Please model this.
Amino acid sequence: MKVIDFFRSKIILFIIQILFLSLFIYLFHYSVDIDFDNDISVPQELIIQFLANFVLFRNPSGMIFVYMSWIVVSLIPDFLYSNFKRAYSMNIMTFFFPNFFAYTFLYQHSVDYFNSNFLFHLLQTVLIGLIITIISLIISLSLKKIRKVNIDAQLEDLQIVANSIKSKCSNCGTEFDSIPTFCYNCNSKIIIKPEENVESR
Model:
């Protein structure tokens, strides 16, 4: 298995994206303020806080951090996959899991906060999802166009090389995709001048 195929695996890519998000949270010391219910246990509080830091915010600086983190992380599949649908589905899958579990745990273990903030967070979640989709589309199409230009240039170079090694028998006119010593058709010795090729004849 090639290295690039290893990183294109959905599980591996999901882990990489989550690790990058976790790194951003750690480096920028980001933590969203949540009003936990009084009866919530410490382990439950830690799990909810961990998940909420990926997707929730309560002020403009938090909004900028969450948006920028997801935009940066969403670029990873765009560069690994040449297909927009694969990149988009990967980003949505990664985006879905922390949101789903954050909302589920808040609903189960911090009902007051969930009920008072659900609509706000839901709208922001939908908006971030749309932004990720649009960016994935733009980046994927741009990369596809760049790759096509590079492929066309490579094909043109290959065509030039292929034409440069073609030859023609001066006696019977038989064309070759190489430069043989003798013509297989009339057994004449083939002599090619350095500047000659099939196209110039």
Observations:
- The chain has a mean pLDDT of 83.
- The helical segments are 3-8, 10-27, 42-55, 60-80, 84-109, 111-164.
- The longest helix spans residues 111-164.
